[in-house]
Design a protein that fits this description.
Radius of gyration: 18 Å
Number of helices: 11
Oligomer: single chain
Distance between the termini: 37 Å
Protein name: Metal-dependent hydrolase
Order of helices and strands: EHHHHHHHHHHHE
InterPro entries: UCP07580 (IPR016516)
Strand order of the largest sheet: 1-2
Shape: globular
Length: 287
Amino acid sequence: MNLKLVKKKKHPSVPIIPRRMGFSFDGIQHDDYWFDNDPVLTHLLNILSLTFPDGERFFVDSVRALRDKVEDKDRQKDISGFIGQEAMHSLEHQAFNDLIADGKYDDIVAHALAVTNKLLAGARKYMSKRQQLAATAGLEHFTAILADAILRRPELLQKMDPAVRDLWVWHAIEETEHKAVAYDLYTDVSGNYLERQRLFLSSTAYLIGFSSYFTWQMLKRDNVHRKPLTLAKGLWKGFGYKGVISSIIPAWFSYLKPGFHPWDDDNSALIEKWRASLPQPKEKNAA
């Protein structure tokens, strides 16, 4: 059954420009809980960060493999911008991940990276190029709504250590800029609604399982599993009322609508608002 439900939408005019920032993370100590001094939130985002270098290379490969289906020059420019931005995200998060892995969590990080690579290798082997693109579009929705939650809630950013905050603000801005690129390419290639949902749901399930397991391993390493009050506070901040993760659940469900498009929520005004808070990039390349 090829149920194709595609919504064409005029995008806001948002240039997609790769920027190499060269973050140094000066001032972060190895044992710091950099997000609200909370081990649960810190390790949850640490684990998500571990997936970014290899995961975003997968995103790039899935988009690059089918970009020849697009003839429009502006769309091709956006695709080039997407590829460049994702490459920069891989580099910057790799530097941050090296900091995470230094010493105390080496074995956990190595295990998490091995599982990530195995999952992505399986996707490349057993999924078609179109299916890989559908999975990318779904995971890009997840990163876009997490980015939106970060940019819309200054109180969350104020709880991050300043040495780490700029990394997450910069990444959130660029995820917002290119949030429709993979989705639009998928609608050009197929637009099969049932396939899009199936891969979105399965990708979400893998991400939840992966993140939960390895966050727990880091918490155990810190003996936080023996501190029920600390655990409860962290879980409430993440999954309770207006939690970091629970607050994005309605936006997560929006992807299930047959007529969904990433720019249904036009949050482009957040981009320039927050870009002004960042240092100048080390390198800036037009797409």
